[in-house]
Write a structure and sequence with these properties.
Helix content: over 70%
Number of helices: 11
Radius of gyration: 22 Å
Largest sheet: none
Shape: globular
Strand content: under 5%
Number of strands: 0
Order of helices and strands: HHHHHHHHHHH
Length: about 260
């Protein structure tokens, strides 16, 4: 079952990857971008795997990538957990939602690049600051989707649980949360690339580590091979993480479906 699920989720992504690589190459050629600045796929491949210094290049790129993956995972986890907790609070206490949802949307309208220096000043440049910056990117879209999913519970199922003596928490656990699982995973799929963007912003403006800071240093040193290699590996990780969430989603939803039958 797992193998079939992986093939079903990953299979459609392969043509998309081919299309993106082809578009990357063709657009650079169509606009006449110099190979000194706009690196083609074969040049990136040579930089990472063919040239004599390829091993050192891989160590630098994938070492920075490991830091970025760590930062993205922290932001993803903190944002999703916070969104789930706040969405549950909003569903249970509508007054709280009416009070704080406008505030949340107002904060969301402030560009993160503007907020990052203040966040860094308050929370520092370590993992706490990274968690806050990445969590903000993930939190707001996930909050809206999860809250909508929790409210999509069947009124008939809700009435049945309450008729047997269940309270709001029982309805939440037995009906609302299972019903909201598609929304939770939709939020997770959106949040995976968003968490990587949040990690890159944190690295650009706060920590000075990882792929984000590496790209800035490489641009400043006119090392465009490194810039494009960084972009390619970050994009590849984002696609793989998106696919992994899709596989987990299929398995979990199939499990819930089996329980409901």
């Amino acid at each position: 079952m797992i193998g079939r699920t992986v093939l079903r989720v990953v299979g459609p992504l392969l043509p998309s990857v081919v299309i993106v690589v082809a578009a990357w190459w063709l657009l650079l050629e169509a606009f006449g971008i110099s190979p000194l600045v706009g690196k083609r796929p074969p040049q990136v491949w040579d930089y990472l795997f063919t040239v004599p210094e390829a091993a050192a290049h891989r160590d630098a790129v994938f070492g920075a990538l490991g830091v970025t993956i760590r930062d993205a995972a922290i932001g993803f986890a903190s944002g999703m957990v916070a969104a789930m907790a706040v969405a549950i609070t909003f569903v249970l206490l509508r007054t709280v939602e009416h009070t704080f949802m406008p505030v949340a949307m107002l904060l969301r309208s402030v560009p993160l690049v503007v907020m990052t220096p203040l966040i860094t000043l308050v929370f520092g440049r370590d993992l706490v600051g990274v968690a806050v910056i990445g969590g903000i990117v993930v939190f707001f879209p996930a909050l809206v989707n999860i809250a909508f999913g929790l409210r999509s519970a069947s009124p008939q199922a809700t009435d049945l649980v309450m008729a047997y003596g269940g309270g709001r928490f029982t309805v939440l656990r037995k009906v609302a949360v299972p019903t909201a699982m598609p929304s939770v995973f939709a939020s997770a799929r959106i949040s995976v690339p968003a968490s990587i963007i949040g990690a890159l912003i944190a690295e650009w403006l706060a920590t000075g580590q990882g792929i984000g800071a590496g790209i800035l240093r490489a641009i400043g040193g006119f090392r465009y091979d490194e810039v494009w290699a960084d972009i390619v590996v970050v994009t590849a990780v984002s696609i793989l993480a998106y696919a992994a969430v899709g596989v987990v989603e299929s398995l979990v939803l199939a499990r819930f479906s089996d329980r409901q039958q």
